[in-house]
Structure formats: structure tokens, C-alpha cells
Specification:
This protein has 536 residues and is mainly β. It contains 7 helices and 33 strands. It has a 19-stranded mixed beta sheet, with no helix packed on it. A 4-stranded parallel beta sheet has the order 22-24-26-28, with no helix packed on it. A hairpin with a 6-residue loop joins strand 2 and strand 3. The longest helix is centred in the N-terminal third of the chain and has 15 residues. The structure holds 2-acetamido-2-deoxy-beta-D-glucopyranose (11 copies). One 2-acetamido-2-deoxy-beta-D-glucopyranose (NAG) binds next to strand 8.
Length: 536
């Protein structure tokens, strides 16, 4: 339950890193002193009449000057309507969706360059063919617009298009690409997102896309792709952003990926990719910031030379078959001096070796997940230099020795998970001295002795504690009394033999998960709280 919680947290974070903006279109609205052209105003009025607008988002669409209407932008020199941005501004789809029919008088709005109808609910119709007459269109965003059915191939008439976004959420497979050949006609296309559409040829999908030599962003997540051909001459070498996640590609990673020398974002996660990951791809992509190949069957000793990751902010290799020594920093230093990494998730692989002493090089690191590998030896004292760290996950390895007191300096740490190792020694107040942000603590299945004084007041308000098999007792831990946010508590098999303190029911008032088995309880009179939980 708890691990599910922070996995989804990590993916949220990963998603938030890259936001691509079509900035050349963002003209400032206030500066227009042109007033709109009569026929275009009428076309917009007709357009509005066919729409449903329950939240009255288009309330400003009255009066003569349509250039002042919400979402409408006119060209400053000519006064023609150039931009229509009706993207749903609210969080929930339901709240501010436009719906109804799209009746766009293309012969009247000839100068439209930008059309954004994303995140609305046009669920009653297909993408109207009439959009294909908006010949000057450079930006078309119908992402999550609720459209269904075949994507009209007439759209290929939009030869000026630079941005095309027809993506939808992963649960809605509604738009179909009947024949992907029409894609190849967008010779100016820089941005293509077809995520969660269906109908792309699972094996030959690359041929039409390979004609788009200006492509900078390609997002084909959840498109049912099964193959990435090995031998191909790639045309679109200006690619900065590539996302092929959530497909079923089971080939190896083709070497032509190394020709994308401008790559900043590479997401191949959740496929079935096999074989050794070609390190040369990373060596040839000096601008790479985001690298996620999690959830595949990839092999190789990718962490041998961490210097190839110097510019990287997100490194996610989890759930693969990578091996070799972890963070084998040659000559005791990163070649770049300092890493920019914010997230390292290499959990669930076969990495071995010792943790490095040079943790101080990772000044920006917020998430470190090395769990479920075979990492040996002690946790180095330098872990205390990771002052940005929010999550430290080292569980299910073969770590041994004492926990360094320096860990208590990590004032941003929210999750400390070092469970299921061979750590031993005494943990006292110093190990927690500045952990003001701590919400989850996993110490279970080690040989740790917790020795804090009865008067200790922890600096944190914790939500989850897992201490099973540590030595906490014989006294019941009095510091728990200060905690008001507890929802999970495992103090099973922790050598307590004490009376249940009278305040415990207050501390446990919001508990969802509780295990106090093998804890020699002397029950006084206990109410419902204990009826729900397992106490052997
Ligand atoms: C808009 O106003 C500015 C000064 O306020 C003026 O210089 C410019 O010519 C005006 N543009 C049009 C199209 O009227
Ligand atoms: C979209 O509109 C249809 C009917 O017009 C409605 O049944 C559906 O619930 C709406 N979907 C959302 C997400 O609002
Ligand atoms: C399309 O709109 C959605 C939000 O409504 C946005 O996330 C996405 O980046 C837009 N696509 C382009 C190409 O700007
Ligand atoms: C698309 O272009 C072709 C040829 O240029 C033209 O015959 C056709 O009418 C156009 N279709 C639309 C929907 O504009
Ligand atoms: C590369 O692009 C050009 C022009 O866009 C096209 O003529 C050529 O066939 C493309 N090459 C491949 C292998 O698709
Ligand atoms: C990659 O680039 C090199 C040099 O620019 C070129 O010779 C090679 O053909 C390219 N490979 C592919 C598969 O496009
Ligand atoms: C990939 O999957 C296909 C069909 O599921 C299968 O025939 C093929 O052998 C697989 N290839 C590899 C390399 O596993
Ligand atoms: C590690 O990678 C860096 C950057 O690509 C390179 O300069 C260095 O020679 C590599 N070191 C080793 C030992 O391979
Ligand atoms: C626990 O801490 C107290 C006070 O700091 C100390 O006297 C005692 O020896 C410690 N016990 C263990 C097992 O470390
Ligand atoms: C209880 O903890 C001890 C170490 O303190 C351990 O050896 C034993 O396996 C644990 N028992 C269970 C059931 O986890
Ligand atoms: C409670 O803890 C004991 C000992 O660690 C373990 O054997 C048991 O499975 C746990 N019970 C539950 C419901 O997790």
C-alpha cells in the first residue's frame, strides 16, 4: 500500500519536469488596438451558437470588438483573427468543458494560425473535416477534446502545420488513425503527439514519421507499437523529445538512436525492450535531461561511468536487468564535478558493489531509490551531504554496519526506507536530529536497536512507521505520544514487554494499518481501535 503511494508520487514528479510550449504564438493580448473584422466576428458568433457552454466561459463573446473576446487574438497589423485558444482552463474536465458542435466557417476565418480546443467534451462528434480548410493553421491542439472515430485524412491539407496534438488520456482510446501515410505530408511539423490513439501500424509506423525531417517532439505513448526497426536511415535528427512509453516494443534498442544528438528527453518506459542498452546513445546526447527506460528487460552496466549522466536531472532504470557496480566513480570524482541529478531510481535491478563516498557530488538529489538490488557494505557518512533529499530508499539490499548519525541532517527527508538489509547498531536521537519533514520510516528487518530517552520529543510528525524485528523495548516508546498524524504503525516483534499506555488510543485515532503482534500487551480496557486490528 505504502509503496504504491510513493511510486505514483514519483511518476507525477517525472511528468512535471518537461512542459513544452509553443512560445512563438504567445502574443500579448492587451496590446491590440485593432478592432475585429465584421465577417470574422459573425463567423465567431455562429461558431459560439453551436457550442454548449454550461460554465459560461464565453461570456465575454459579446460586443463589436471580437479581438477583445476571451480566447480570441487578432493580428496586430491586419486585425484578422489569428488565434483561437479555447483550451479548458479548469482542472476537472466536467467543470468548464465546451461541448456541442464545431461549426467553423473556414472560408471566413482564413487567417487562423492557432486553434486549441483541448480538454473539452466534443464527445458527440468526429474531428470535423472542415478544419482541413484552415489552410494557414500552424498549431492544432485537439488533445483530450473528446473526439472519436477516424482522424480525417483531409487534415493533411494543413501543410503549414508545425504543432499537431491529437493525444488523449490513457483510458480513452477514441481516435483512430486509418492510414498513417497522411502524416508524411506535414513537412513543417515540429511537434507530433498521437498518444493513446490507435491504428498506427505497429511495425511500419516509423516510415511516415521518418519523412518529417523538422520533427523536434514525438510522443507516441500508448499507441500499440510493437517494433522499432533496427536498420533505418533517420531523417528527423533534430529530435529533442521522444516518448514511446507504454507500447509493446520487444526488440532491442536500435543504434540509430545515437543520431539524435539534440535529445533532451527520452522516455522508453513500460515496453518489453531487450538486450544491452547502447551506452553510446547517452554519450552522444550531451543535452539529455530526462532518461527513463523503466519497466523493460534491458541489460548492461549502465552505471559504470556516471560521468555520462552529468547533465541529467532524471534517471529512471527501475524494473530491468541492469547489473554491474553502482556509482563506480573513477578517480573518486565525477568528471563534471557536480551532478545535476534530482531523481535516481534504479530499483529492482541486479546492481551490486558499494555505495560511493562521493555523495556530496549530488547536491540537487531529491529522490534516491536503490531498493531491490544487491548493494553491499555500509551507508557512507557522506549521505548527510544530500541536503535536498526527500526520499531515501535503500531497502532489500545487503547493506551492513551502523547507520551514520549524519543522516539526521537531512531536513528535507520525507521517506527513509532502509528496511530488509543487514544493518545493525544503535539508533538514537542524533539520527533524527533535523528530520523535521519525515513522514515515513522503514527500519524493519534489520538488527537495529532503537535507544532514545523517554523524554525525547521528535522533530517530526510521522505518518507511517515500520519497525518490525528491531529492538525497541522493553519499554513502550514514549515518544509516540507526541505524534498526531499516524496512519500506519508496525511495532511487531520489537521486544516490548510493557503495559499499554493510556494515551495510545489517542495516537491511534486515525490508524489504518496496525501490527503489534508478539508485543506482550497487558490489555486494560480497550475500545474499538483494537477490535479492528490484529494483535496476536
Ligand atoms: C495601435 O496604437 C498604436 C499607439 O497606441 C499606434 O501606433 C498603432 O498604429 C495602432 N495600430 C493600429 C493598427 O491602429
Ligand atoms: C461529455 O458529454 C457527454 C454528453 O454530451 C456526457 O455523457 C459525458 O458525461 C461528458 N463527459 C465529461 C467528462 O464531462
Ligand atoms: C495541448 O494542450 C494540452 C493542454 O490542454 C497541453 O498539455 C499540450 O502541451 C498542448 N499541446 C501542444 C502541442 O502545445
Ligand atoms: C485538400 O486539398 C486538395 C488539393 O489541394 C483539395 O482538392 C481539397 O478540396 C482539399 N480539402 C479540403 C477539405 O480542404
Ligand atoms: C527523408 O525526408 C525526405 C524529405 O522529407 C524524404 O524525401 C526521404 O524519403 C526521407 N527518407 C526516408 C528514409 O524516409
Ligand atoms: C547517423 O549519423 C551518421 C553520421 O552523421 C551517418 O553516417 C549515419 O548514416 C546515420 N545513421 C542513421 C541510421 O541514420
Ligand atoms: C516479440 O513479440 C513477438 C510477438 O509477440 C514474438 O513473435 C517475437 O519473438 C518477440 N521477439 C523477441 C525478441 O522476443
Ligand atoms: C566516462 O565518461 C566521460 C564522459 O563521456 C568520458 O569523458 C570518460 O572518459 C569516461 N570514463 C571512463 C573511465 O570510461
Ligand atoms: C541507551 O542510551 C543511554 C543514554 O544515552 C545509554 O546510557 C545506554 O547505554 C544506551 N543503551 C544502548 C543499548 O546503547
Ligand atoms: C523477530 O525479530 C528477531 C530479531 O530481533 C528475528 O530474528 C526474528 O526472525 C523475528 N521474527 C519474526 C517472526 O519476524
Ligand atoms: C505482523 O507482524 C508479524 C511479525 O513481524 C508477522 O509475522 C505478521 O505477518 C504481521 N501481520 C500482518 C497482518 O501483517
Amino acid at each position: 500500500m505504502a509503496s504504491y503511494f510513493y511510486i505514483s508520487f514519483v511518476s507525477l514528479l517525472l511528468c512535471a519536469i518537461f512542459v513544452i510550449q509553443a512560445s512563438e504564438f504567445s502574443q500579448s493580448k492587451v496590446s491590440t488596438n485593432v478592432s475585429c473584422i465584421g465577417v470574422e466576428r459573425e463567423a465567431l458568433v455562429k461558431f459560439k451558437q453551436e457550442l454548449t457552454d454550461p460554465s459560461k466561459r464565453l461570456w465575454s463573446w459579446i460586443g463589436k470588438d471580437c479581438c477583445k473576446w476571451q480566447g480570441v487574438t487578432c493580428n496586430e497589423k491586419t486585425g484578422h483573427v489569428s488565434k483561437l485558444d479555447l483550451r479548458n482552463p479548469c482542472d476537472g474536465l466536467e467543470r468548464c468543458s465546451l461541448g456541442g458542435k464545431i461549426h467553423i466557417a473556414a472560408n471566413k476565418l482564413k487567417h487562423l494560425k492557432y486553434l486549441d480546443l483541448s480538454f473539452n467534451n466534443f464527445s458527440t462528434q468526429k474531428i470535423p473535416e472542415s478544419l482541413a480548410s484552415l489552410k494557414r493553421l500552424e498549431y492544432l491542439n485537439l488533445s483530450n477534446g473528446g473526439f472519436y472515430g477516424d482522424i480525417p485524412h483531409q487534415l493533411s491539407n494543413l501543410s503549414n502545420l508545425q504543432y499537431l496534438d491529437l493525444s488523449s488520456g490513457w483510458s480513452v482510446h477514441s481516435l483512430k488513425i486509418e492510414n498513417s501515410r497522411w502524416l508524411s505530408t506535414f513537412s513543417n511539423l515540429k511537434y507530433l503527439d498521437l498518444s493513446n490513439t490507435y491504428g498506427l501500424d505497429s511495425k511500419e509506423w516509423l516510415s511516415p514519421i521518418n519523412m518529417l525531417s523538422s520533427l523536434e517532439v514525438l510522443i507516441l505513448s500508448g499507441c500499440g507499437l510493437e517494433d522499432v526497426p533496427a536498420s533505418q536511415h533517420v531523417n528527423f535528427t533534430s529530435l529533442r523529445f521522444l516518448d514511446l512509453s507504454y507500447n509493446s516494443v520487444n526488440s532491442s534498442i536500435p543504434h540509430w538512436f545515437q543520431n539524435f544528438s539534440k535529445l533532451e528527453h527520452l522516455d522508453l518506459s513500460n515496453n518489453d525492450l531487450q538486450g544491452i542498452f547502447p551506452v553510446v546513445i547517452l554519450e552522444n546526447s550531451p543535452w539529455l535531461r530526462f532518461f527513463d527506460v523503466s519497466g523493460n528487460k534491458l541489460e548492461g552496466e549502465l552505471l559504470k561511468n556516471l560521468s555520462i549522466f552529468c547533465n541529467l536531472q532524471v534517471l529512471s532504470l527501475c524494473y530491468n536487468k541492469f547489473s554491474g557496480r553502482i556509482f563506480d566513480i573513477k578517480g573518486d570524482a565525477l568528471i563534471c564535478g557536480q551532478s545535476n541529478l534530482k531523481t535516481i531510481d534504479v530499483s529492482n535491478n541486479n546492481f551490486n558493489g558499494h555505495l560511493p563516498n562521493q555523495f556530496g557530488n549530488f547536491k540537487d538529489l531529491e529522490i534516491l531509490d536503490l531498493s531491490w538490488n544487491s548493494i553491499l557494505g555500509p551507508i557512507p557518512t557522506s549521505v548527510g551531504q544530500l541536503l535536498s533529499l526527500r526520499m531515501l530508499q535503500l531497502s532489500s539490499n545487503k547493506l551492513s554496519g551502523n547507520i551514520p548519525k549524519s543522516i539526521g541532517q537531512l531536513s528535507n527527508l520525507e521517506v527513509m526506507d532502509i528496511g530488509d538489509n543487514q544493518l545493525d547498531g544503535v539508533v538514537n536521537e542524533l539520527h533524527f536530529s533535523s528530520l523535521t519533514s519525515l513522514t515515513s520510516l522503514y527500519f524493519w528487518w534489520n538488527e537495529l536497536v532503537i535507544n532514545v530517552s523517554a523524554s525525547w520529543v521528535p522533530p517530526f510528525q510521522i505518518q507511517a512507521i515500520f519497525m518490525s524485528s528491531c529492538k525497541v523495548g522493553p519499554k513502550f516508546p514514549n515518544w509516540l505520544r507526541t505524534q498526531r498524524a499516524l496512519s500506519a504503525l508496525d511495532m511487531s516483534n520489537v521486544s516490548i514487554s510493557d503495559e499499554v499506555p493510556y494515551w495510545l488510543s489517542d495516537v491511534l485515532s486515525d490508524i489504518e494499518e496496525l501490527n503489534l503482534s508478539d508485543f506482550v500487551l497487558t490489555f486494560v480496557s480497550y475500545s474499538d481501535t483494537f477490535m479492528k486490528v490484529q494483535v496476536d
